[in-house]
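fyi for ur records
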Amino acid sequence: MRALWTGNPEVQVARAELEAARARARAAHQPLYNPSLELAAENADVDRRTIGVSLALDLSGKRRARGAVGDAELDVAQAAYEVVRRDVAARWLKVWFETTLVVQESRLGQRRVELMARFAELAERRLKVGDISSTERDLAALALTEAQAQQAALLGKAPGVQASLAALGGPADASLPTPPRELPPMPRDDAAVAMERLPEWRLAQARTSSADASVRAAQRDRIPDPTIALTGGRVRTGSAAGMSQNVVGVSLSVPLPIRNNYRAEVDAARAESDAAAAGFSGQRLTLRARANETSARYRALREASAAFRGGRAAAFDERTGLLERLWGAGEIGTSDYLVQLKQSLDTALSGMQLENETWQAWIDYLGAHGQLTAWGEGRDDEGDNKPSLRDSNR
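which gave:
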């Protein structure tokens, strides 16, 4: 997972945006105004040489309000970064299990080709001794051709899945670990969703806080800041021998919000705050619904997978051996053999797909309950004895 997050472009973009938000937060806490230095000289009936320093004073708390906005936007960027990491991890894990499914299907498809090749060879021998008709021999040859075509289709899926895996920028296919064999445990019926742990929850909450801080900043921006200036110098009147004296001056200027009182900016910030609050409420409903849906879906698929593993449907090799012996003994015909063998193969493929769907549902369940990152990294942050990915591979 760490190698994935290091090499994935989406995570790199989110990380760069997070660093930019940190820099903006530091900038927001800096003083708003720098002092100004003014040098003046005048030659006339009165010769004047002065130097002045002026500074606008933040008496309304603009700096504090803008710092709060910067901190809130940093929280937004941090939550968005966690969402991207979680989503990238979920997509990678799903493609990883899909890759495993393709490999398993290819192996089963190769086993099917071998069985059909053996079946076609035996049919040819039995035709020579008159045990079966030429029609049955042709049926066996057609079954071999169909199996080879289906195997080609299965092999054609592998490049696409591998390309999807490579596009995420994670580890190379050759260095991938083997997915765990044991299915994860059934979720507890009373397991409550810790909403505050979900990155989407934190993102919506951070956006609401940022919008509220923007309202306060807009309100502070309406208050004009005065500028105070201190001037000192020397003034000489008359001729070269005229009177010369030092002068000191203090001035205060205040902008007058007459032509623009900046009320529209406050109204816009309040509207955005209302929108963020409404979005937060909608996100809360969505997250709870998704958590319930993923729990129910994983529970149903987990039960089906466990039943398949414990039933006779999983005994593929035993069934195929029995069918071949029955056909060789003449107790079943060629068409019955092919029908039952095809059913056994289809059942085995369905079991693989069911198990893959179960793992996909487990990933969705972890993501909807805020546990995917910890599970992928081998941490147990939930305290409920959930096996981590690292534990599953031991």
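The longest helix spans residues 62-128. thats all i got for now
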